[in-house]
């Protein structure tokens, strides 16, 4: 039943291939190309010909996918390493300034507050001037672009420069901001720019479908080179950016992300930051007995609480933005003073994290990397205290306060960082929210782990062997759960395994991540979908839990029926009524009011620009000058001016032969005298016919009426 068509098609293909092969054999071989003749002269002729053929072979191979992916991974690894080096230098400079002024607390405060404020203000101003599209994460825009929507200026070189420099300054300030989302945008811009460059060697890079596939691979590269996590990067990019993922892109994403992560870690070894290629946050958990089965309820509690916390974070972030927009007075003031809001937010956050002040209760002097290193430590703080046995004694000192215990410090850290991160991510600078949420989740998991270690000092295991509870494992579980709840992804579990270099807690991590996703998806959309709704991007989100009855809603139930439209024969007065009668950004273009055949749409701004062009004084003077110099002897007597489209049938007078020129409206002066008036059977063209504006059909090029 199904084999006949396939067999006939295969036979036809084989016969056709054999015929083409025989035809090629019968065809005489072409002579040596003329451009090679000049290389066949002299003693080194064979070498010259070989070099030219090798050059052509290499140029032809540039179009291969693996070459493009290697270039993409290499460039992104270099960008990631350079940015990390610059960010570490900025943070070290802040510590140096703070430590050098230890004799005066006031000068320390001024240095601690001024430094991040200057960097954030510069980042916001530089981004607004060069490319405002670089503001924010970039993942919501990439989700929209991969759905097929064209967003202008989002994948240009100008946006790339603004994103890289602005993100470096923003992260170098020490604010609770992340770089995972911006790196996805940076990798996508890098892929788009590489496609434009390599299109010089072959036109296949101009193919839109191919570019979309390369953008999907670039999203995986962005996460892979950011965390040195190629597997988690590919899975995260699929979950976040793609609704329907083409399996043929799978190897592209893995290849590019793996190469990028490898080069990124090799550069760290080359710079002597690491002795060998290791995980970014290497953990040393116990492998023989990492956790007891009776600890699984505690891990489940972390997952459920992280689900509620992730939904609350998304809700708080959205409400902050909506509050700023709804307050018209504040909004107008901040629109005039664009740099005031980021400077004010940075001032408040840096003041609260000042180490001699309130920051001493929340480890304010630690950076995000140092915070994660301490939270993933496998020692128990509450049980053993802080002693010289700790490897990171200097860093762990930040969590100890003489007048409070570690539980108070962790609770204050979680509460303060929670609203600080939600507020900081609304600053108009290139920034993400993954790393701040990751750190908050690690702190919450550490709090639960320390509580369990305090309640069960000798562990839960009832056999003769004693295995103490490892709070660092709880921190890993909490980091994966809260970040997965905010982004609505499960791949954060894989990212955590690659970040820590250990897979011993795979079962509790997966349980917590799944439970966190189940709770968060039932309460709020993901952070990226929330930003899409705030920015009103043309993206159709997935329906959440409890909304399945909306699958029965038809398009006709939500469409606006009474809508203004533009026809091909629409006159100037009609077009003005349409523009004044609706505030729609796009106007549908139909053939006529009777047929209502949709031809497309045009933006309102484009219509205004076309009208301004048609009615500009320069256009009038140019047309009048052409009219005076034309072969016509008609005299211009009536000052009234109108637009009309000249067609062969618009006048009873004979028309001269058609000239090959583009279709455009001709500016005419209409004579009021009877001698110059048009015949009774002529069509009265009063107003601009939009056929000339929207449908320049070369097959229907008119002649000018005499």
From TrEMBL:
Biased composition (Basic residues): 658-667
GO CC, alphabetical: chloride channel complex; plasma membrane
Compositional bias ranges of the Low complexity kind: 671-682
Gene Ontology molecular function, alphabetical: voltage-gated chloride channel activity
Major site of localization recorded for this protein: membrane
Residue span of region Disordered: 647-685
Keywords: CBS domain, Chloride, Chloride channel, Ion channel, Ion transport, Membrane, Repeat, Transmembrane, Transmembrane helix, Transport
Superkingdom in the source lineage: Eukaryota
One Pfam family hit: Voltage_CLC
Membrane topology listed for this record: Multi-pass membrane protein
Transmembrane segments: 66-88, 109-131, 183-202, 214-238, 250-270, 296-318, 339-358, 434-456, 476-499, 506-523
InterPro entries: CBS_dom_sf, Cl-channel_core, Cl_channel_volt-gated, ClC
Compartment annotation: Membrane
Protein name: CLCN2 protein
Gene: Clcn2
């Amino acid at each position: 039943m199904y084999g006949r068509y396939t067999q006939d098609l295969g036979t036809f293909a084989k016969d056709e291939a054999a015929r083409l092969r025989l035809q090629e054999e019968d065809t005489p071989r072409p002579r040596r190309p003329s451009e090679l003749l000049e290389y066949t002269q002299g003693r080194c002729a064979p070498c010259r010909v070989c070099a030219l053929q090798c050059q052509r072979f290499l140029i032809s191979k540039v179009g291969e996918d693996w070459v493009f992916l290697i270039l993409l991974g290499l460039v992104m690894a270099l960008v990631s390493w350079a940015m990390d080096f610059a960010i570490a230098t900025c943070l070290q400079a802040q510590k140096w300034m703070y430590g050098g002024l230890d004799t005066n607390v006031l000068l320390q405060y001024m240095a601690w507050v001024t430094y991040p404020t200057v960097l954030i203000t510069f980042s916001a101003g530089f981004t607004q001037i060069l490319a405002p599209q670089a503001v924010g994460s970039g993942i919501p825009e990439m989700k929209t672009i991969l759905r097929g929507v064209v967003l202008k200026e989002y994948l240009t070189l100008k946006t790339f420069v603004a994103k890289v420099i602005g993100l470096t300054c923003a992260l170098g300030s020490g604010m609770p901001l992340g770089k995972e989302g911006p790196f996805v945008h940076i990798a996508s811009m890098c892929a788009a720019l590489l496609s434009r460059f390599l299109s010089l060697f072959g036109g296949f890079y101009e193919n839109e479908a191919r570019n979309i596939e390369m953008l999907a691979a670039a999203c995986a590269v962005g996460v892979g080179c950011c965390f040195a996590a190629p597997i988690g990067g590919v899975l995260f990019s699929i979950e976040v950016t793609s609704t329907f993922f083409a399996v043929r892109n799978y190897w592209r994403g893995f290849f590019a992300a793996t190469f990028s992560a490898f080069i990124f870690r090799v550069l760290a070894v080359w710079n002597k930051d690491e002795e060998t290629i290791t995980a970014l946050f290497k953990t040393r958990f116990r492998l023989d007995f990492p956790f007891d089965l009776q600890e699984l309820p505690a891990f489940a509690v972390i997952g459920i609480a992280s689900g509620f916390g992730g939904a609350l974070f998304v809700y708080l972030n959205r409400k902050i933005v909506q509050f700023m927009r709804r307050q018209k007075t504040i909004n107008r003031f901040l629109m005039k003073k664009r740099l005031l809001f980021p400077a004010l937010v940075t001032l408040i956050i840096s003041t609260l994290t000042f180490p001699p002040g309130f920051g001493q209760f929340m480890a304010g002097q630690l950076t995000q990397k140092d915070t994660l290193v301490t939270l993933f430590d496998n020692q128990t703080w509450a049980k053993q205290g802080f002693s010289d046995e700790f490897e990171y004694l200097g860093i762990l000192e930040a969590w100890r306060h003489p007048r409070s215990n570690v539980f108070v410090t962790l609770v204050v850290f979680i509460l303060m960082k929670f609203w600080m991160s939600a507020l900081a991510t609304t600053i108009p600078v290139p920034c993400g929210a993954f790393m701040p949420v990751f750190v908050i989740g690690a702190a919450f998991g550490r709090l639960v782990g320390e509580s369990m270690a305090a309640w069960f000092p000798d562990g839960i295991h009832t056999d003769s062997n004693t295995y103490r509870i490892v709070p660092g494992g709880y921190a890993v579980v909490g980091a994966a759960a809260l970040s997965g709840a905010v982004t609505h992804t499960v791949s954060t579990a894989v990212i955590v395994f690659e970040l820590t270099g250990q897979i011993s807690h795979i079962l509790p991590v997966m349980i917590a991540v799944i439970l966190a996703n189940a709770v968060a998806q039932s309460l709020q959309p993901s952070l990226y979908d929330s930003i899409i709704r705030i920015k009103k991007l043309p993206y159709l989100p997935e329906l959440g839990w409890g909304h399945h009855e909306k699958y029965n809603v038809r398009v006709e139930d939500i469409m606006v029926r009474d809508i203004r439209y533009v026809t091909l024969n629409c006159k100037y007065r009609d077009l003005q009524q349409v523009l004044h009668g609706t505030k729609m950004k796009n106007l549908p273009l139909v053939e006529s009011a009777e047929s209502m055949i949709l031809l497309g749409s045009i933006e309102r701004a484009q219509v205004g620009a076309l009208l301004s062009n048609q009615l500009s004084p320069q256009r009038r003077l140019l047309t009048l000058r052409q009219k005076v110099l034309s072969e016509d002897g008609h005299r211009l007597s009536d000052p009234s001016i109108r637009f009309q489209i000249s067609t062969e049938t618009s006048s009873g007078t004979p028309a001269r032969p058609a000239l090959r020129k583009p279709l455009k409206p001709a500016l005419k002066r209409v004579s009021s005298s009877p001698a110059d008036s048009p015949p009774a059977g002529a069509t009265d063209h009063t107003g601009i016919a939009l056929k000339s504006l929207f449908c320049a059909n070369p097959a229907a090029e008119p002649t000018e009426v005499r």
